[in-house]
Design goal:
Spore Coat Polysaccharide Biosynthesis Protein SpsA, Chain A; eleven-stranded mixed beta sheet; 20% strand; 11 strands; 2 domains; 11 helices
């Protein structure tokens, strides 16, 4: 089932209690050049123990034939096509809008390069059902690349902010997963590759800020959730696997990706502070990232980061000369998606 549409803002119309299915969830997969990984993702979802789940692919103008394959192989999967690649957050917002129109209780956002454990969705929804203040709930994330000894490699088991909000504290990331049963834990951030969102919370705080093309839109949303009084949780007994080398990454250069990352840093900080302070925090975050890359001998990435930083500096000079804000979307576009105007 496929439908082409233009991007439109999330409806703010609340649903009545009688209209809402308390455990209904729409799984939204923002897709771009997903290849076979997208098909593997859907297969893992179809093996889920969740009984009230609908799968929705929001395609960002893929040309690799993956969407057509998905439609041929999985008749029950719905596809919405965007006319252009509007970015991760915009694709997610389209799916969120549809879930709201259907009066679902939850939206699960997952990347096309992930596979889920059969019980993951059920465990996330069960926890959210029993935790009414949980606006965002995320699973434990394991890498598809195991440790040298074959043991699972942990990517995410909870993330917390530091004095630099975009420099997260992520205990044991990249190390061997202990595989021990752990209770749910309240965190600051859940990552967008596997994120269960309560629709009632989204109606309260808005969905993703369209000012982020990619990177940090999930951090921004979690921050707004907490500021509005909602809680963010990680449920380690719910597991997802993430392949960090998917087709969408391969279709873009590393330098382009780092440029998007530093632009998103600046947008995040400028949403919350004056431009001079946002610039300082952005370059402080870049400095901290550079130290980490050098420490781990990721010299190629370090070169791309330096190049992106030089381009950001040139862009800032042009913006200051033109008297323009650093944000590359209008405040009207943000308001359309329910993103509150930040006070500097």
């Amino acid at each position: 089932m496929s439908e082409e549409s233009t991007l439109s803002p999330v409806s703010a119309c609340p649903a009545t209690a009688a209209e809402v299915d308390p455990s209904s969830v729409t799984v939204v997969i923002p897709a771009y050049q997903g290849g076979d990984r997208l098909l593997d993702c859907i297969r893992s979802l179809q093996a889920s123990t969740s009984k009230s789940m609908k799968i929705l692919i929001v395609d960002n103008a893929s040309t690799d034939g993956s969407i057509e394959k998905a439609e041929d192989l999985f008749a029950a999967v719905e596809v919405q096509r965007n006319p252009e690649n509007a970015g991760f957050g915009a694709a997610c917002n389209r799916g969120i809008e549809i879930a709201m129109q259907r009066h679902d209780s939850f939206v699960l956002l997952i990347n096309q390069d992930t596979t889920v454990a059969p019980e993951m969705i059920e465990r996330l929804v069960t926890f959210a059902d029993h935790s009414p203040q949980a606006g965002v709930v995320g699973p434990k994330t394991l890498s598809t690349l195991p440790m040298p000894n074959g043991s699972p490699r942990l990517l995410y088991g909870g993330a917390w902010r530091t004095w630099l909000p975009l420099w997260q504290r992520i205990p044991d990331s990249g190390l061997e997963d202990s595989n021990k049963q752990q209770p749910p834990i309240q965190v600051d951030y859940v990552w967008g590759h596997g994120m269960l969102l309560r629709v009632a919370a989204l109606r309260n705080v808005g969905s993703f800020d369209p000012g982020f093309f990619m990177y940090y839109e999930d951090i921004d949303l979690c921050t707004r959730m907490i500021q509005a009084g909602w809680q963010v949780w990680c449920v380690p007994d719910a597991v997802i696997w993430h392949d960090m080398n998917d087709g969408a990454r391969a279709s873009k250069s590393e330098s382009w990706r780092w440029e998007q990352k530093v632009e998103s840093m600046l947008h995040f900080y400028h949403q919350r502070s004056s431009l001079p302070k946002a610039i300082f925090l952005t370059f402080a975050t870049i400095g901290r990232e550079s130290i980490s890359l050098a420490r781990h001998r990721h010299f190629s990435a370090l070169i791309h980061l330096f190049s992106a930083t030089i381009k950001l500096r040139a862009s800032l000079l042009r913006r200051c000369f033109d008297g323009k804000r650093s944000s590359f979307v209008t405040s009207q576009a943000q308001a359309a998606y329910g993103v509150p105007k930040q006070k500097h």
